[in-house]
Design brief:
The chain is mainly alpha-helical. It contains 7 helices and no strands. Helix 2 packs antiparallel against helix 6 and helix 4 packs across helix 6. The termini are far apart.
Length: 224
Amino acid sequence: MAARSLVPLRSSRSRRLGAGAYVVGAYVMVCVLVCGAAVGLRGTLPWAHPTPAWSLSSLAALGWSVTLSATLALVVIPFSRLAAGRFAWARHLADRLRPTAASFSSAEIVAVALTSSIAEELLFRAVLVPWLGVLPSALAFGLAHQMKGPSRFAWIAFSFVVGLALGAIYTATGSLVGPILAHAVINGLNLAWLKSRGAARPLGALLGAPGQGRSGRSLGAAAS
């Protein structure tokens, strides 16, 4: 009897750890591939913008990057929650994302928020912005955040606007630290909201954090 009880226990633990672990693993792979490609093409890691618009010291660039990105996060998070109570697309989006958020533990939410922000900012901002420009990189970022259903184009548009803002901050300051932190905070707080209070008050828009929910539905591409 004791031996039999271990089998479902192990299976339950595997399922519980699997959702977040697979998403984190996927983002780690993206980080490795992006950094490897950047080193091969540029000879350096894709961190600082090669030609920032503002001529700042390293410390000033970091300060402005964090300040502007924090301001953006303070706008995006309340807007997401306000949209959930006013727009059908936001409610539908929350319904689609809630099962995946509920499947994550608190530690997995932190890990997903951090890895998704680093991977997506490295790809869409650090690599694509200097290469293609802010507008095309934001468009790619928006197209990477989509799903089937009535929320598809609204979420693409929302992610596009956020991508524009993050790209502009990176281009101006040259520092990727602020966009990464803002992206991580937005993803982490929105996932936590969906997990803890989503059943009562659904959250409108989640930036980034692609993956698979319990229902098997896709969460998108990043992500903010």
